[in-house]
Description:
The chain contains nine helices and twelve strands. By secondary structure, it is an alpha/beta fold. The protein has a single domain, classed as TIM Barrel.
Amino acid sequence: MKLGAHVSVAGGLHNGVAEALAIGADTFQMFSKNQRQWIAKPLTDDQRDQFRTALAESGLGPVMIHDSYLINMGSPDETKGKRAQHAFLEEYRRCEALGVPYLNFHPGSHTHPNKAMRDDHATREAALERIAGHINTTLAKTEGFESLLVLENAAGQGTNVGITFGELAHILERVDDPSRMGVCIDTQHAWAAGYDWAGDYDGVWTEFDSLIDRERLVGMHLNDSLSDRGSRVDRHANHGEGKLGESVFTSIMQDSRLEDVAGYLETPGGPDRWRPEIARLRKLAER
């Protein structure tokens, strides 16, 4: 498994490459724009070329771009849904222009104001249908793009959908061109959603494989968890400081089925913490 972290691109996208090299990574994840703003200045040719050159010279990859947290393609509000779809399309165009193979995104939320409707089946299913529809609109407008759209599982906070493998499968089954889709599994999100990595590691993957083609799995977010299993609380922890335990990450690093899957840290602390965490994960693979 190639390992990296979600690096900073402050001062220029090419700086993400430098930070990844500095922490001894094989790959990295990044934002291509300010993720807390809807509108970004278009990429200039110089920005694009500087990043592409730095990446090619580094030998790092496969790189993943994470889209903006503002985007919610599950919204039932038509205006908000169109805004989200437009922003997602722009994220995809930036990803393709930069030559990055993966655009990672969270499914979205159904936003129903009544807490009693949080887990209502029809409400959740309608949101999943909207998400698939926006994905199809994006794909139709980007024929010929080589970058994959990579669907990530959610932790289940608030009205999040896409928290179970079944909900991810529901979206994927409704995508017109599944060959342009990938999946990224966040270990913390899955734990918070109720998946028992620690007690039934093989069972987690058995359920995944029964619902989703394993070839769709291109990445994992290797995060420990501050929150309890099934809490539906999205709180990442550094390795060795969370609820999952070292045995879970040992299982992941020694799982031959995951050799071609890239692992990205989204843990606190920045480069000073990521370098030893990456080294620690590599040692787990050697045991």
